Amino acid sequence: MKTLQPVEVVKQVNEGNILTPKGFKADGAHAGLRYEKKDVGVIYTETPASSAAVYTKNIVQAAPIAVTKDSISQEGKLHGIIVNSACANACTGEQGLKDAYEMRKLAAEKFGVSEHLFAVASTGVIGELLDMEKIANGIQALNPTTERVSAESFETAILTTDLVSKHCGYEAIIDGKKVSMGGAAKGSGMIHPNMATMLGFITTDAVIESTDLHAALREVTNDTFNQITVDGDCSTNDMVLVLANGEAGNEPLSSTHPEWPVFIEMLKQTAETLAKKIAKDGEGATKLIEVNVHGMKTKPEAQMMGKTIVGSNLVKTAAYGADANWGRIIAAMGRSGVTFNPREATIAFGDIVVLKDGEPVAFSEEDAKVYLEQDSFTINVYLKEGTESGTAWGCDLTYEYVKINGSYRS
Amino acid sequence: MKTLQPVEVVKQVNEGNILTPKGFKADGAHAGLRYEKKDVGVIYTETPASSAAVYTKNIVQAAPIAVTKDSISQEGKLHGIIVNSACANACTGEQGLKDAYEMRKLAAEKFGVSEHLFAVASTGVIGELLDMEKIANGIQALNPTTERVSAESFETAILTTDLVSKHCGYEAIIDGKKVSMGGAAKGSGMIHPNMATMLGFITTDAVIESTDLHAALREVTNDTFNQITVDGDCSTNDMVLVLANGEAGNEPLSSTHPEWPVFIEMLKQTAETLAKKIAKDGEGATKLIEVNVHGMKTKPEAQMMGKTIVGSNLVKTAAYGADANWGRIIAAMGRSGVTFNPREATIAFGDIVVLKDGEPVAFSEEDAKVYLEQDSFTINVYLKEGTESGTAWGCDLTYEYVKINGSYRS
User: Fold this and answer.
1) Is ipTM > 0.85 here?
2) What is stated as this protein's family in its record (chains A, B) (predicted)?
């Protein structure tokens, strides 16, 4: 695949969000972990939702990850998730774990449900304890509704150094019923394969068991969230959570359901849209870079090469400068760990071919500059090792990234 | 080992350089590949030298690498090496390979020696052909001597975006004879494990066969040149070359020679000094970061973790901001691919412990800031997985890096 193409039966919902599917409510509030910005958010469904999540592969995992794993492990069901920004509650020892369980309890009490039916997520600075008094007050202040403004409140509350909130919505007909899906995400720094300071929340009213939902999520994550990189760093707190409350009334979805591919496609669209929004809004980024690698023996190889290219600081700074410096691309390909014949390599910025079968091609630097100055561009790599392709997304590396990260804590 | 400690018998030579050993000459000249700066350099020894080299592991290797491999493969001997900066002669196809052979021939003719007794190295922009007329004129202009000023000319001629020239010299007594060693290097961008746009040239008057020299070089490279990173990128042109002309008159060195460890130590000192100078002068860098990882099961694991930490953009930007953001260090450790128990992790900036057995420790942010504002500082990581240690070196990530690389070609 070049990029995921919308299957016709899956339709994007204009201004869709986590409240696009039936039965979900959300809100965000200001708990005071930050001076002004909302910093606590909730997604809630009265009908318990089948749940599935994927987590950071970092060996160091924050306390809320342990708590969410515990919740989902019990029944595979959730009423909702409570999230805070500003403090990651990571590397906070026993106290941090107690605090994460307490946060879950406070949310469950607020909504009158069992503790194990709530998930917890945190994002922000590592190594500082949560201010639990503020968290408690923030949770009390939450007042979830089904209105768009409530989704916006949630989307804002989960941001850290993100500049824009990230959301999308899709719908499809399954078993003659309208099934909807919505998503919200935050990203920015520490974004790299295998999840990063990335939180993704996907809601759907589809009927699906937790185990099938988990299978679908895993399948989709490898091609979407795990194919973005902002800075190569991978956080302690990453999580993508899907809640399926079943209110659409379709027949239970599983791999034997004839319309399973439609559901997978909808989940893919949602995940890819969120992932690309995260990449584009990487810390200090001014543009989205898409890398498509064609003609590899296997898809994972194509994906790995794509990630190496889009993760190269030299490619990223050249992108910032709109400099058609393809030498850095082939150098990144060569160190990607993937075997290929450089004499058969072709590289193009969009349609502008700069290297053809391993030999430099004369091209208009001016045209290339115009192309690379767009707020989104594509690098295409063609090899002759096989027929598999893979895509990765990232962003440019700018002064602003250095500024943001030179003194993030202050 | 924490860092390599000087063995007493190996002494640093004040202002030592590639001309510290007997019998070597050098020079640099202005061929006109750049406007003003010297851009062609030579090292020459009248007595043919046993030679050994290690090269980039990038699949894409520049033409001069092929030529140097060809030269050394023939007799394991060299009279010298001809180097140019400004143009890497990489990804230049058949013409590039012809040009690299022609460059070797021009140098050999100039000095009246066989072609295969000259090595070739290039560094600079990828994908552009060498201007052979300028190269020919530059080679003609070379006039190597044994004077310090000639070593300085060579050191200058090989630089690209480096700000300072890099050299060192050592001596030791072996078999009652004074054996000397000197080195010159260039680095700056695209510096990462497995060689990068890094050229290292080491001269010695030791008597040693080419195969033994190669074994020594390989042993030392893994702990030195391969443990530095500037930006995670790895070039198409990296090479470290050692020339041993035997003029010291010691008994031939090999692993059975009683003073073999002295020679290894001298080579290690030379390589480590050059490697650290490269890291410190990374593109846009303002400081050298040393990371020591202690208590790992194996040395390669300790080295890999060290490299991951010192290669993290988030650690690098925090270093720039003198921000004691240890959360980024443990996050990097967690994604390093090395297994460890985070609850036993201790992290210190120099002696300032910030995480002890997985729990945050109160520390003076002010003291930490003062420590991190130095032009060189150390991150110490202590684990309890085993008894092995490893060291890596890198630099901070600054506005200047982005500036340099946003428009390197223009």
Assistant:
1) no
2) Belongs to the ArgJ family.
